[in-house]
Predict the structure of NADH-quinone oxidoreductase subunit H.
Amino acid sequence: MIHVLAADPTLADFGKDPLWITIIKAVLLFVFLMLGVLFGVWFERKLISRMQNRYGPNRAGKFGLLQSVADGLKMGLKEDLFPRTVDKVLYLMAPVIMVVPAFLAFSIVPIGPMVNMFGVQTPLQLVDLPVAVLFMLAMGAVSVYGVVLAGWSSRSPYALLGGLRSAAQVVSYEIAMGLSFVAIFLFAGTLSTSEIVKAQEQTWYVVLLIPSFLIYVICMFGEAARIPFDLPEGEGELVGGFQTEYSSSLKFALIMMGEYLHTFTASGIAVTLFLGGWRAPVPISWWDGANQGYWPVLWFFIKFVLTFCFIVWVRASLPRVRYDQLMSLGWKVLIPVNLAWIMLVAAVRNVVVNEGNKTLGIGLGAVIVVGALAIWMRFDTVNQRRKEAKKAQVEAEFEELSNEPAAGGFPVPPLDLPHYHGVQHKEIPSGTN
């Protein structure tokens, strides 16, 4: 069944498979993702427990391997409740809208090169498009509708506000994520995932475009709603966010599955666009057969698992941020930095590639970097002045309040506030009325 082929797949190799081969690849991809969810949950709980000096799941099956299966069966068999005021159609459709795009988004991830599968030469990828990366972003945008509809159809103010906040988070980080791909498009000259992997034959883009990779990693947590950006799951002031009215039943399981599948998709895209895709790392790549046949599936799986381990490690290490910090990072930091980096990459690549002048390209890049640092320092100085002015205003208000024995005509107890809004003050004498 296995036949070694050296050719990398291109767009011309897609759309030629018999229907039964396409069905086989679709079923294999579905099974991979479903098993990935089951064992991914178990693996995450085990890894976090080891990092916290605990055992984790160890009752259901050997090493607790059946714990996720038991949890899935429990949620699937629990009574399915419908609150009286919900819009039943949209209430049911919302979890489905969150899950289906996650499956579709993973279909453009290349897992291996051209192989011989049951006598048919086919790429180890379900589908590829001239705009495959945009298709992935579009599927992430469609899933936002599921979040909004889940909150709106619940007819609960807490769920509605949670849905709006979650949608704003995903959309904000989707913009920064899309901008982080622009530098890759400039280097690869294509939006096809298979051809982007082919363009990394010599050097992975994580080396050439490290700022884009770092920005994508941050956006990956925000778009997939993982800690430290898991506000949709941690809506303490909104009861439970957009999923407040979903009981622990099959609908709730679909919502959790959708979030996990988005994490898998983000990991697969990171491997594809930045970590060489299915290509073997050095020194394994020195072996002639490393990137041929079915061996690349192993390299892709190893990279995929390591990326997922990093996501779990971040969850076990960082606390949850506030919502205002979340949105400020996305709009005030990631998007401006992305735009500056795209301008630098475009200018340097145009000078170096089109004109062949490396010295001029390096000089232009240095000028752009220095200019960006100057602008940042200028804004930082302005922000510092604003903070100092705010601090002085708070101190003045505090002094005025402390010198007024009856604020507004009402008796006020002695104030003992050594810290007021982050500003240290002198302790008020106990004789003050």
